[in-house]
Amino acid sequence: MDKQNAQMNAPHPGTNFPAGYHPQYPPVAFQGPLGHTGYPGLHAAYPGMLAGYPVPQADYSIPPPGCSSAGPVGFPVQHQPVYNQPVGPAGVPWMPAPPSPSDCPPGLEYLSQIDQILIHQQVELLEVLTGFETNNKYEIKNSLGQRIYFAVEDTDCCTRNCCGANRPFTMRILDLMGREVVTLERPLRCTSCCCPCCLQEIEIYAPPGVPVGYVIQNWHPCLPKLTIQNERREDVLKIIGPCLVCGCCADVDFEIKSLDEENVVGKISKQWTGFVREAFTDTDNFGIQFPLDLDVKMKAVMLGACFLIDFMFFESTGAKEQRAGVW
Question: Rounded mean pLDDT of 223-251?
């Protein structure tokens, strides 16, 4: 019996551990036979050991990176990720959605909190290299640089390249969820300043299919003039531009005035973007300023007016070269 006990207590090869060391079980060196899937979990081997500890369900999803799990009961959760600041494809943050005021068309609640809009047209590499007219794309931001909307032109290839800047178009304005919240429709109209009929016009719908306003051109021999109308075709505001819209190395301002043209309530500015960009691309940057308490529908109509002004005066290649001083 003593000999048998001595053999059992004798150290085995590979198990000479120092005092106080508790090896892992099973030992790492033990791989098991081919096809061995390891030892059963603690819950299966010791059913009473994990009493009171819930087991993750089968559909339990792993938390996203940066989200730490909750600690013991009574301790606060720390380092929670912030999800209220969505980021656009290019890393540009989107403006957090404000509460929607009453009688506000869905998607226009962003406009209720701002008095300035920045519109940046994206550079299309194919268009720069080949001169092939592509659909225009714009980022619409607030004064903090946060993206509010993304505007995409929807025009067929033949119309774009045959009609140029005079083309009729549909502009779709999308929010951060990719939903179309505003639709702009520009019909084909006359572009001659000598013809007082069939002048330029753009229609604004928010949401799509529901008209909220119109922008129509007023004939004038010298000045570019536009009228902003509500959904009932009633005149609300006037837009008056400078006699020369080809200012070099300076912004070009279109003033938004009252109907009597006595009071200036805002402006639409074509911003100077530099000699190279002005001369060799047709991308433009605009800024819109209006009263903070202006009806959100009229703010959406201002967006339509800005796009109409862009196509009327700044989209053509000849206008670009003239503003840059090429000829």
Answer: 89
Cβ within 8 Å of residue 324, ≥6 positions away: 248, 275, 278, 279
Q: How far apart are CA 237 and CA 26, in angstroms?
A: 82
Q: Which residues contact 296 (CB under 8 A, 6 or more apart)?
A: 101, 104, 105, 108, 109, 111, 112
* Domain made up of 109-321: CATH architecture: Beta Barrel (2.40)
Residue ranges per domain, the chain?
A: 109-321
| DSSP labels, 104-147 | PPTT-GGGGG-SEEEEEEPP-HHHHHH------EEEEE-TTS-E
The verdict on pTM exceeding 0.70 is: no
> Cα separations (Å) of 87 from 93, 172, 176, 219, 237?
4, 21, 9, 44, 35
Cα distance between residue 156 and residue 172, in whole Å: 14
